[in-house]
Amino acid sequence: MxxxxxxxxxxxxxxxxxTVWQNxxxxxxxxxxxxxxxxAVEATGxxxxxxxxxxxxxxxxxxxxxxxxASDTKGHARDIADHLDGRxxxxxxxxxxxxxxxxxxxxxxxxxxxxxxxxxxxxxxSDETVEGYHVYLGGGYAQNxxxxxxxxxxxxxxxxxxxxxxxxxxxxxERPGPTETFQxxxxxxxxxxxxxxxEEKVPDVVxxxxxxxxxxxxxxxxx
Length: 223
Ligand code: SF4
Prior knowledge:
With 223 residues, the chain is α/β, with parallel strands linked by helices. Helix content is 38%, strand content 17%.
C-alpha cells in the first residue's frame, strides 16, 4: 500500500480508490505518465492487468476473519482466478461472488456465478466435512437485475475451479458470439442441460462444442 501510495503521489492526483468489485484505482494519471505508473506498480510486485475473471471476483472476509464463514472465501477466490487464468481467455465481463454464509456480504445471489459457503460432508451421512459451496448461476444487477438460480449444492472447494472452467468453456463454445453474456447463456439452456454440460470432462465438452473449428483448422493447414 505504501508503494501504491507513492505511485499515486508521483504519477497521479494522489488518490487511491477502492471499488465495489474490490479493485483499486490510481486516479488522475496523465496519458504521458501511464507507462511510468505501470512500471512502478509492477515494481511493487503487483500487476495493473487483470483478466475478466480476476477483475470481477468479489469475496467476503471469509473464515480468515469472520466466525460465521463456512469457507476461506478469499483464498478460494484466488484459487479460482489462478486456475481459470491459465486455462481460458474470457472476452466478456464476468462476476463471481463468494460469500461465506447466508448473510451474503458478497451478494452471491447477484453474481453471474454465486458461491455460498457450506460445510460439505466427505461421505454421505459422515460427520467429517470439508469447506465447500452451494453454486448459483445467472444473477445480475441494474438493467440485468436477477436472482441467481441454485445450480449445485455441496461442492467441495477444491472442485469448484474445475466446475467453473467446464461451465465457462461450454458458454464460450455454445454462445453465438460475445454479445451473449454468461448471464443470458444461463437463462437459455435449461438447468438440466447445464448440469449435464458441467458433468462432462473438459476435453469432451471442447471436442463436442468445437468440432467445426477443429476441422477448419486442419483443412486450412498448409499442404
Ligand atoms: S457473508 Fe457471512 S462469513 Fe462473509 S463476512 Fe459476511 S457475515 Fe462473515
